[in-house]
Amino acid sequence: MSVTQSDPVDHDMADEPVYVISVAAKLAGLPSWTLRVLDKEGVVCPQRTEKDRRLYSDRDIAKLARVRYLTEERGVNINGVKLILEMENNSTGRSELGRFGEGEQS
DNA sequence: TTTCTAACA
DNA sequence: TGTTAGCA
User: Fold this and answer.
1) What pTM did the predictor assign?
2) Is residue A106 very low, low, confident or very high in pLDDT (cuts 50, 70, 90)?
3) Cβ–Cβ contacts within 10 Å for residue A7, how many?
């Protein structure tokens, strides 16, 4: 009796990789190939099973959802998302971004 | 970006 | 059988 769920072991949050690429893509609202690119770029950190199956955790889904806003609403490329997430990972949320336009397609 | 093939569960 | 992963 500590937190909400009554689990013997300490399960804090969704860190269990149980979502395959198609499920993660649906939850994030992104196409499957995008998740594959994000993984190649090192934007997301999906666990890999013995058969090379990418398993995404709720933690990855949350990051994917942010990527979807940047790519869908803001029109940022994978390269831009990688840069933005890289800044958030390095800086405590203080991004001194001037005015740099990413290569945007119509 | 899209599609095809191969392997796995 | 359906789905995933990798490449051209």
Assistant:
1) 0.75
2) very low
3) 9
A56-104 confidence digits (pLDDT tens) = 998 899 889 988 988 888 888 888 888 887 787 776 555 454 445 444 4
Distance of C1' in B3 from CA in A85, Å: 31
Cβ A50 to strand B below 7 Å: yes
CATH of region A13-89: 1.10.1660.10
Which nucleotides of strand B lie under 7 Å from a protein CB? Answer: 1-3, 8-9
User: What totals of helices (H) and strands (E) does chain A contain, helices first?
Assistant: 4, 2
User: In whole angstroms, what is the distance from residue A18 CA to residue A58 CA?
Assistant: 9
